[in-house]
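re: ur msg from earlier - yeah i can do the pyridoxal-5'-phosphate complex, just paste it... oh wait u already did. ok heres what im feeding in:
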Amino acid sequence: MRQLVGRLRSGLSQLFSLPEGYEVALGNGGATLFWDLASLCLIERRSQHLAFGEFSAKFAQVVQSAPHLAAPEVIESAPGTCPQPHPDEDVDAYCLTHNETSTGVQCKVLRIGFPGQLVLVDGTSAAGGLPLEAGSVDAYYFSPQKCFAADGGIWVALLSPAAVERSARIGSTSRWIPSSLDLNLALQNSRLDQTYNTPAVATLFLFVQQLEWILDQGGLSWAAARCRQSASIVYGWADRAAYATPFVQDPDQRSPVVATIDLSPEVPAPEISKVLRRNGIVDIDGYRKLGRNQLRIGLFPAVDPEDATRLTQALDWVAERVGVTNHV
Ligand SMILES: *Cc1c(COP(=O)(O)O)cnc(C)c1O
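and the outut:
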């Protein structure tokens, strides 16, 4: 177990070229737990959130309902777009999402704010597939079931010295922090290549396999290039196909790891998805709450770009037949 955690921590430091003083912490519970943890251990009084889809909005809701925090500043934008954060002296943390998995939008992650303020970034579906300048953020947290092709249930956070210091300071106040949500405890254990309570070992094993495979292939720049290649195949097809259009209007905001593609009404996405599923092509359904005639295609590093090409060919083949039937 300790050997696995050790390989995970050193592999992630290498993958993200962590600056001096940055640390890798982990624990049980996934990114969703990390939101709760951050509301206790990283946000001191008030935070600013960008909310532009299911996941980014969920973190804002966690903070809105936290009795010990002031009402957060929430900057919203329509699904399919990315709002801009702005410096505000009245907050102590900026909460950004690198890739909004529900809508297929990627956002720029840049240092924002004044000295002493923290930048907390949900990198759950971005980590391992999108470039990152780790030094520009204070906490970059994620789960392993997206770009790292593992199972869920674990959170990882890349922490700056400022984040570690903030957590230690809040921990020394009278704020009540349950042990399973205590970042200081998690960090103490991580430093010993342990977790505070028993982790899902199979998840750790899969996580390390994928991480070391990415490192062997050339690291983060290799993985990001592979995702961009798959993405250019899928968005290129959507631009050409008469019945398909990329949902995200701004090409720079189109995610290279989660492509959302709108279909025209005579080609119902659920029907396409059903036919493909019967033929072994699975999990391309849109995000239901978005309520669009849409496909959502995972293009994580584990996906071979050739499979992206095959998928677009399969889509054309099925759409042609389904579309004709629906015209009659
Ligand atoms: C999947 C996802 C989450 C939730 O991750 P869990 O491991 O289920 O907690 C949070 N944020 C983003 C951006 C995600 O893609």
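cool cool. DSSP finds nine helices and twelve strands in the chain. ping me if u need the other ligands too
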